[in-house]
């Protein structure tokens, strides 16, 4: 993974996190505070989220320090006392973290992570926590929809060149692999996360040769065991016949043409024609790969129209989650010094207190409903989803790696009701608010109104 602790992640925050911390420090506020991170609502056409980002967060948290350079920068702003800066220099996270394991399917208002620590510590982490969990959960949730629509066809992440920054590029590769992509074109992500890497050629490669066939043969000579040819630089149908010629040359040498890629044009018509050409020459096993501005919506159209596609390169629209480019994440204080706290702003509801999510299943082991309730609710018999990953500042649950998270997602997804997997779901999963949480919420709201 990218070790962002080498790049002063303590400053990857908003100024107001530090100004609040400075005021807490001056006022002697050191009480324990619990903050809860959750998503308020599903974007249109979405019905579930996939938890991702925990491993990245724990890597940063383990090394979270205010370096001398960071302290010098804060001093240069002329806003903070030396006592406060000295406090920050010695700050180490000392609290507890409970979170959904990566690959867990979850729903609105269910916490993906809850942090309990002295309020300065838990407050300072807000911006960083939201940033990390947002990008990885956003992409995992988008990519899972692509996997569903693909109906078993292999998907490869092609998003590197248009994602919003280098960190986003590797997180997209990891998050898409977590939910079932075959791999990525991104070599750095392949190295960091041990993800399979894939690649063919660009149109520039074809164009650098005088003749298209020369380019095809040159590539086959260099990579006879993994030749995949790009067909649409000039004329896709003529290129398909040239691919047949290259396939014959490879066969004579004990190899086979692995596949061809189409990146433009009428993919339904072209894949049919290319497939017919290959069948006529005994090359029915040559894979046809499609790419070019594809996501779950376009892929659904192609498959429904009968396109012959074996493998799909999914790029920009998945890498930036084009149809839903953000999730409505909120990081809210829910308890301070052992007392529940509540925000009463209209339209921005939050649930008080540290919480737990209990999952219930039908008799045939399908997900039935969740209960969101207080963490100490002993009346629930369902499966508790949030687990303790950090205690007293120490990581107590070792990083699992993306492959374990991938297995967890596949297991949970197999038990997600079918009506929630469709491209435009008409139903939402049932999340019940536990009686204990409702009562505590009402008591807290009433007390707050009276006090104010």
Could you characterize what this model shows?
The protein is α/β, with parallel strands linked by helices and 452 residues long. It has two domains: 4-139 and 324-451, nicotinate phosphoribosyltransferase (Alpha-Beta Barrel); 150-319, Aldolase class I (TIM Barrel), CATH 3.20.20. Helices cover 40% and strands 18% of the residues. The chain is built from 16 helices and 19 strands. The protein has helices at residues 15-27, 54-62, 68-76, 82-89, 119-124, 126-150, 166-178, 187-193, 203-207, 212-222, 236-252, 267-280, 296-304, 316-319, 402-413, 435-451; strands at residues 32-39, 49-50, 96-99, 105-106, 113-118, 154-157, 183-184, 228-230, 259-262, 287-290, 311-314, 329-336, 339-340, 355-361, 367-374, 383-384, 387-391, 394-395, 431-433. The strands form four sheets. A seven-stranded antiparallel β-sheet has the order 13-12-1-5-3-17-18. It has a six-stranded parallel β-sheet with strand order 7-6-11-10-9-8. The radius of gyration is 26 Å and the shape is elongated. The chain starts with 14 loop residues before the first helix and ends with a helix. The mean pLDDT is 95.
Topology:
Elements: H1 15-27, E1 32-39, E2 49-50, H2 54-62, H3 68-76, H4 82-89, E3 96-99, E4 105-106, E5 113-118, H5 119-124, H6 126-150, E6 154-157, H7 166-178, E7 183-184, H8 187-193, H9 203-207, H10 212-222, E8 228-230, H11 236-252, E9 259-262, H12 267-280, E10 287-290, H13 296-304, E11 311-314, H14 316-319, E12 329-336, E13 339-340, E14 355-361, E15 367-374, E16 383-384, E17 387-391, E18 394-395, H15 402-413, E19 431-433, H16 435-451
Helix pairs in contact: 3-4, 6-7, 6-13, 7-8, 7-15, 10-11, 11-12
């Amino acid at each position: 993974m990218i070790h962002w602790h080498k790049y002063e992640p303590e400053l990857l925050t908003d100024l107001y996190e530090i100004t609040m911390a400075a005021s807490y420090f001056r006022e002697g506020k050191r009480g324990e505070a619990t903050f809860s991170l959750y998503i308020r609502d599903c974007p249109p056409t979405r019905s579930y989220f996939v938890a991702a980002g925990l491993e990245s967060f724990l890597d940063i948290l383990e090394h979270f320090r205010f370096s001398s350079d960071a302290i010098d920068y804060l001093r240069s702003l002329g806003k903070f006392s030396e006592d406060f800066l000295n406090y920050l220099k010695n700050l180490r996270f000392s609290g507890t973290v409970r979170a959904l394991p990566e690959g867990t399917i979850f729903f609105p208002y269910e916490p993906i992570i809850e942090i309990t620590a002295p309020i300065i510590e838990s407050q300072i982490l807000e911006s960083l926590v939201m940033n990390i969990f947002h990008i990885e959960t956003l992409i995992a949730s988008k990519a899972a929809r692509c996997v569903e629509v693909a109906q078993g066809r292999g998907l490869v992440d092609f998003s590197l060149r248009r994602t919003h920054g280098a960190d986003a590029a590797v997180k997209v590769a990891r998050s898409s692999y977590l939910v079932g992509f075959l791999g990525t074109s991104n070599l750095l992500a392949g190295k960091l996360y041990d993800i399979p890497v894939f690649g063919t050629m660009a149109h520039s490669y074809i164009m650098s040769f005088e003749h298209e066939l020369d380019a095809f043969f040159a590539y086959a000579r260099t990579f006879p065991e993994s030749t995949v040819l790009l067909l649409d630089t000039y004329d896709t149908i003529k290129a398909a016949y040239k691919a047949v010629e290259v396939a014959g040359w490879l066969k004579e040498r004990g190899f086979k043409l692995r596949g061809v890629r189409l990146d433009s044009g009428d993919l339904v018509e072209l894949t049919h024609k290319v497939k017919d050409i290959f069948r006529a020459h005994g090359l029915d096993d040559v894979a046809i790969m499609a790419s070019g501005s594809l996501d779950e919506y376009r892929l659904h159209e192609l498959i429904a129209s009968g396109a012959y596609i074996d493998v799909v390169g999914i790029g920009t629209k998945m890498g930036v989650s084009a149809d839903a480019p953000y999730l409505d994440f909120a990081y809210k204080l829910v308890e301070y010094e052992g007392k529940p706290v509540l925000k009463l702003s209209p339209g921005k509801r939050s649930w008080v207190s540290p919480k737990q999510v209990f999952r219930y299943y039908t008799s045939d082991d399908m997900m039935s409903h969740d209960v969101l309730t207080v963490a100490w609710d002993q009346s629930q018999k369902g499966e508790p989803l949030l687990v303790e990953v950090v205690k007293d500042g120490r990581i107590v649950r070792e990083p699992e790696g993306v492959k374990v998270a991938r297995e967890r997602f596949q297991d949970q997804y197999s038990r997600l009701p079918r009506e929630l997997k469709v491209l435009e779901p008409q139903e939402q999963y049932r999340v019940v608010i536990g009686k204990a949480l409702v009562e505590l919420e009402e008591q807290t709201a009433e007390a707050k109104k009276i006090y104010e």
